[in-house]
């Protein structure tokens, strides 16, 4: 599917700090026709990965995981930040530039042996998706790949995920 999302992403230089450009996809969410095209485009790039389950990564990945799951006839699960899910969970910690964070998944989710597509809004350094890959593997799932709305190609996330045999598909790319 040929869909250029760039016109529907606002760019704010020097936010949240100097030297960083914030890519805001909020304008695309405001337009029902564009939102439908985004989900159709997500389906088109995700279909070859043949997922059984779509896993939305906390929090903006949730915006795309459920409609993508519906459109693809898959189930959906949530990869959440620590302390956000009830019941027994498995966790995976990962490094941030300013410390450490933890992701969790409920053990009662039925993903063992299923192909799981991770979905998030942005792939930059790959740390969050990499931790999600580890979490899905711990749960017995098979990582089909990751789909993201925006990929910042100059930050090395794709290379990190390639080391984990996690294919990456994205709708829109920018260097930084």
Strand content range: 35-45%
- How do the helices and strands follow one another from N- to C-terminus? EEHHEHEEEEHEHE
Q: Structural class given helices, strands, pairing?
A: alpha/beta
Number of domains: 1
> What's the CATH topology name?
Rossmann fold
Any overview of this molecule?
- It is a single chain.
- With about 180 residues, this protein is α/β, with parallel strands linked by helices.
- It has one domain: Rossmann fold, CATH 3.40.50.2020.
- Helix content is about 30%, strand content about 35%.
- It contains 5 helices and 9 strands.
- It has helices spanning about 25-30, 30-45, 60-70, 125-140, 155-160; strands spanning about 10-15, 20-25, 55, 75-80, 90-95, 100-105, 115-125, 140-150, 170-175.
- It has a 7-stranded mixed beta sheet, sandwiched between helices. A two-stranded antiparallel sheet has the order 1-2.
- The longest helix is centred in the N-terminal third of the chain and has 15 residues, at about 30-45.
- The chain is globular.
